[in-house]
Write a structure and sequence with these properties.
single chain; alpha/beta; Rossmann fold; Dehydroquinate synthase-like, alpha domain; 2 domains; 7-stranded mixed β-sheet; two-stranded antiparallel ribbon; 11 strands; globular; binds nicotinamide-adenine-dinucleotide; binds the ligand O=C(O)C(=O)C[C@@H](O)[C@H](O)[C@H](O)COP(=O)(O)O; binds zinc ion; NAD; Dehydroquinate_synthase
Length: 355
Amino acid sequence: MKDIFVQSNTNSYHITVGESIRFQLEDYLKKDYSSILIVSDENVAALYLDDILKNFSDKPIFQSVVPAGEQSKNMQTFYQLQTDAINYALDRESLIIALGGGVVGDLAGFAAATYMRGIDYIQMPTTILAHDSSVGGKVAINHELGKNLIGNFYPPQAVVYDVETLKSLNEREVRSGYAELIKEALIADTDFYHTLLETDIYNLSNSELQDHLQRGIKIKAHIVEVDEKESGIRKHLNLGHTLGHALESDLGYGKLTHGEAVAIGLLFSLHVSEQVFAVEQPFEELALWLKNNRYPLSDIDYQTDRLINKMKSDKKSVKSKIQMVLLKELAFPVVEELKDDDIEKYLNSFIVRMV
Ligand SMILES: NC(=O)c1ccc[n+]([C@@H]2O[C@H](COP(=O)([O-])OP(=O)(O)OC[C@H]3O[C@@H](n4cnc5c(N)ncnc54)[C@H](O)[C@@H]3O)[C@@H](O)[C@H]2O)c1
Ligand SMILES: O=C(O)C(=O)C[C@@H](O)[C@H](O)[C@H](O)COP(=O)(O)O
Ligand SMILES: [Zn+2]
């Protein structure tokens, strides 16, 4: 079992990574809560909700199970969670447990951030991707006009990551999670990037997977400690997300997984970095790895004008000027403002490169 401590300006919390730790939840709670609401999605609830319920026999415990998938990160589901919290009489001493992937984490975290102006919550990630989403306190729901546009920075009280739950993930969710690991490696750790490119992500040993998760979490934890509210280096964690988020929203939430969209966005960032800095980037190498691992790279309906509009409503934009995270070289990320005309040019040449 491994423990990583995050000390941010607004909170400090432990991230515990281990096997079977979902059965020892009391060990990770900071206080004796008056009641608990477990939020999960229908897939995860069917697999693991009973395990979590077994932890608490001495206090009122409730559950809200939402439909699985990105579409649940919406206003209606958020409102339903608030209604559930009111009906279950949650009070300011209650706890929300987010049991699931990034969708549940973002949604339940935002519900916790806003219910009675904020109650405690813990993250119990159950996807590889959620090694990223469960750390750092970004909680949000989507708007049909853009990803994560309604949200807050609201750190959890603890992250309890039982990696045993990852065994039930399907191939698509494995590759989705590995896209964020590649992102962390690209911005911060060249050795890690090379290790990942040598990894057969569909035949991972437990120790290999746990090593990758630890390395990814450490990179993320360090960045959010230094810059919790994204005024500086936290923007680097958005590598690949300017186009990635635009694609998710434009194609319709859930068409591509978040990680699949980010993977395309990472390639676009390398493509733009090559042009802007006139340096060679590992574009072809990463594209080949992604292709070999069946990331959907071709047959994407790129609507350039619409994508540019979506990119302008990205949270990094200032005065509607698109800002992208680029790489001067591996592990040397920078944030660059780009003209719309240039983005259009880069998108067009990228689309040609992707067929
Ligand atoms: N807050 C952040 O910092 C941050 C960071 C990265 C991503 N995100 C957000 O995270 C979301 C994506 O998260 P995700 O990829 O985990 O998606 P997800 O939560 O939708 O989970 C993916 C699918 O896997 C299923 N699932 C989850 N755990 C499972 C398990 N153990 N076994 C079997 N099936 C399981 C889910 O039911 C779902 O169908 C996006 O909305 C993205 O914007 C947020
Ligand atoms: O934690 C961060 O900061 C990130 O950017 C991590 C991203 O992987 C994640 O998808 C995040 O939700 C994107 O943030 P947003 O502010 O662009 O919505
Ligand atoms: Zn992401």
